[in-house]
Design goal:
146 residues; Chemotaxis protein chec; eight-stranded antiparallel sheet; alpha+beta
């Protein structure tokens, strides 16, 4: 199993476990640039280097954050980005623990960043986007490996 495949499989598991167990993942796309939108990103550095991110329309990201946190949110604001970043950090941390245990790979996470103003994030190399359909819309998850 490739690391990309492991990352995406664990992402589906974590989305089902922590957000919603009735999601539908769409086919993964390979792209050269990450499209514009609301971005929450986090770097992975070390033996395995990658950029992970998620993006969605603000109203969809708000619903995602509310579903994950089990909180009522009135609209898109800073707390939405913090909650989405918390999910990304949780998922990436669990992925790296798994990678460390199964492949003896040592990597660390950079702090999550929220960037919804400066345009598209720059892809590292091979970039995969996996759209995940929720009842309230689509959240796109990104993995750009070096």
């Amino acid at each position: 199993m490739t690391r990309k495949t492991l990352y995406l499989a664990e992402l589906i598991f974590n989305l089902n476990r922590f957000v919603d167990d009735s999601i539908t993942s769409k086919p993964t796309e390979i792209v050269h640039e990450i499209p514009p939108g609301v971005f929450i990103s986090q770097g992975i550095t070390g033996d395995y280097t990658a950029l992970s991110a998620l993006y969605a329309e603000p109203d969809v990201l708000t619903r995602f954050a509310a579903q994950y946190s089990k909180m009522e949110l009135e609209g898109y604001d800073g707390i939405v980005n913090e909650l989405a970043a918390d999910f990304l950090n949780l998922h990436n941390g669990l992925f790296l623990v798994n990678l460390s245990e199964t492949e003896n790979v040592e990597s660390t996470l950079t702090p999550p960043l929220s960037d919804d103003k400066d345009g598209p994030l720059k892809a590292l190399s091979d970039t995969y986007i996996m759209p995940v359909e929720f009842k309230f819309g689509t959240v796109n998850f990104v993995l750009s490996e070096k």
